[in-house]
């Protein structure tokens, strides 16, 4: 994880990175999340087939963190 998460833009609380899986009808899907511990603000990536390689999932995660950090800018 090369990207560093900025605090929540809404409440300034600590945020953390998480991965969750959903069992679809034919395949398992994985979603990458950024979640605020204080106000339950959640940002999620698109669902990905869980057979994606770990490096692909990390790449998606880095993009999600970039999006989060852009939103976290005050201006
Ligand atoms: Zn928050």
Please sum up the structure shown.
This protein has about 80 residues and is an alpha+beta fold. Helix content is about 25%, strand content about 30%.
Structure description:
The chain contains one helix and four strands; from the N terminus they run ββββα. It has about 80 residues and is an alpha+beta fold. It has one domain. The model has no long low-confidence stretch (mean pLDDT about 85). The protein is elongated, with a radius of gyration of 13 Å. The longest helix is centred in the C-terminal third of the chain and has 19 residues, at about 55-70. Strands 1, 2, 3 and 4 form a four-stranded antiparallel β-sheet that branches. It binds zinc ion. The site of zinc ion has 8 residues, from loops.
Please specify the SSE layout and strand pairing:
Blueprint: E1 15-23, E2 28-36, E3 42-44, E4 48-49, H1 54-72
Antiparallel strand pairs: 1-2, 2-3, 2-4
Zinc ion binds at residues 8, 10-11, 13, 36, 38-39, 41.
- Helix segment count? 1
Q: What are the low-pLDDT stretches, counting only 5+ consecutive residues below 50?
A: none
Ligands and ions found: zinc ion
Globular, elongated, flat, extended or rod-shaped: what is the shape? elongated
Assembly level: single chain
Amount of beta strand: 25-35%
The largest sheet is: 4 strands, antiparallel
Distance between the termini: 26 Å
**What structural class do you assign from the helix and strand content?**
alpha+beta
How many independent structural domains? 1
Mean of the pLDDT scores? 87
The rounded Rg comes to 13 Å
Instruction: Estimate the helix proportion, in percent.
Output: 25-40%
SSE string, helices as H and strands as E = EEEEH
Number of strands: 4
